[in-house]
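Table S2 (text version). Query chain:
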Amino acid sequence: MNDINYKTEQEQFWSGEFGDAYVDRNVGEDLLESNTAFFAKIFAQTGPMDSILELGANRGINLQAIKRLLPNVQLEAVEINKTAYELLRQWGGCVRVYHQSALEFSAPQPYDLSMVKGVLIHIHPDYLDKMYDVLYQSSKRWILIAEYYNPTPVEIAYRGHAERLFKRDFAGELMDRYPDLRLVDYGFVWHRDARYPLGDTTWFLMEKSI
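Corresponding structure-token output:
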């Protein structure tokens, strides 16, 4: 299998029926409340911002939580799945929603914060460097990565599918690729947290040298 097939298969997988099922799972007031608590920790470090971009925003559960905390922030999103894209547009909280692959996105301007949450784990390793570049180039100052962490790269079967979920040190690799990035803070949210569970997410907040 060559590189272009990895990219094509990945995009078809997430833009099709499996992606639609993922959209249906990512909903609910409990999830929204957990995300609101999560982003409150992040914004305590960054302070107010004017613009935020999410790559792979799905139906917008993260952006809805952000809007609760920063009602005046300009939100933009990139989403490959058409069902999720339409739900994002219907929500109406984004200034722009781009219906395309994040791998092919070129930011029209840098945003105060660029972020991914539960996205890099689904990118084939052959395309991670491209995702890192998009994430970095889209940011004016802050970068947030919230993914499954593992100190060494590992592939895990995902709902019966191979080559669809990968754990690794995404933040470390991004910082190695861009040495001007400074780690501001990091943390972990346990799926059994008594108040705000959130799927064993490890997050890293980084800042560009300015």
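Notes on Table S2: The chain has a mean pLDDT of 89. The chain has one domain: 3-207.
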